[in-house]
Amino acid sequence: MKIIDTHCDALLKLQFGKRTINNGGKPLSYQDDPQLDTNLNRLKKGQLMTQFYAIFIEPDVPSDEKWQHALEQIDLFYEEVLGKNPEIKHIKKWEELNHLKDGEIGALLTLEGADAFGNDLVKLRHLYRLGVLSIGMTWNNANLCADGAGEPRGGGLTLLGKEVVKLNNEHHVFTDVSHSTVKGFWDILELSDYPFASHSNARAICDHPRNLYDDQVKAMFAKDGLIHVVFNPPFINEDRETATISDLIKHIDHLCALGGEKQIGFGSDFDGISTFVEKLEDASTYQNLINELLKFYSEEQVSGFAYKNFLTHLPKAL
Ligand SMILES: [Zn+2]
């Protein structure tokens, strides 16, 4: 069954490989390097239809170097992911997802954290032009647009953050709440035409700041937003560091019980996580999750989770 996966951190790994060449690092081949959970061979084996690629700048990168890091990751997306793999097709506009041919894998850029552009909206407009189709205001720390989920202050959007959400609306770009504070979530939900949780689970099942409370989940569904579950064990179980596919399905069950059957999907966080759900260790193992889901849900429901729900919620002019 085809899969759309809305979050991975392969670009950060590719950048790290390239930047550390002088210190024993090596350039990673996107085709088959085993260090990449989402390499092309694994995407093919997992039957991925489309993979999202986050631009993510680690918080310890000095502010005046962040834009350069973002450009390097975008360059690696164009050169290594797209440039060397003709079967991977760049999705620069949402409707292009509907025109992928059999054997082609869509690839699209997202931004995880406004730190990359600081307060420079010229840079933000360049990101839109380069094909960024979903923007999360923060990672876990604060920046000029908002506080992140790990920031004790727990603030919401700044004036600049609100302006960015409006620009996202104008460009038909998702505003991703996955790393938002609770306050930031509600600010985004009020302003965004296209709210999205690219990689978050249910807080009722696992009480972690990266997950969503039931009132948030219900409000997201009421606003026609999507929630894509994440495969990171600390966001699946709060009492242990490991997780099984059954544990992950508890989150899917809960989101469905809150009315999300047609508004949920998958955002693995592969290449950004260091522990894994058993039997779901990289993109090649995706069908293990599908096969398990088919024991409890109909083919129509599972294909919804896997890719169809996303395709029926593409941002378009309102
Ligand atoms: Zn993340």
Using brief descriptors, characterize the structure shown.
binds zinc ion; nine-stranded parallel beta sheet; globular; alpha/beta
Could you explain how this protein is built, in words?
By secondary structure, this protein is an alpha/beta fold. It has one domain (3-311): TIM Barrel, CATH 3.20.20.140. The protein is built from ten helices and nine strands. It has helices at 10-19, 40-45, 66-82, 121-130, 159-170, 182-191, 214-222, 245-257, 286-293, 299-311; strands spanning 3-5, 48-55, 88-90, 105-112, 132-136, 174-176, 195-197, 226-229, 264-266. Strands 1, 2, 3, 4, 5, 6, 7, 8 and 9 form a nine-stranded parallel beta sheet that branches. Helix 1 (10-19) packs across helix 3 (66-82). The radius of gyration is 18 Å and the shape is globular. The structure holds zinc ion (ZN). Zinc ion binds next to loops.
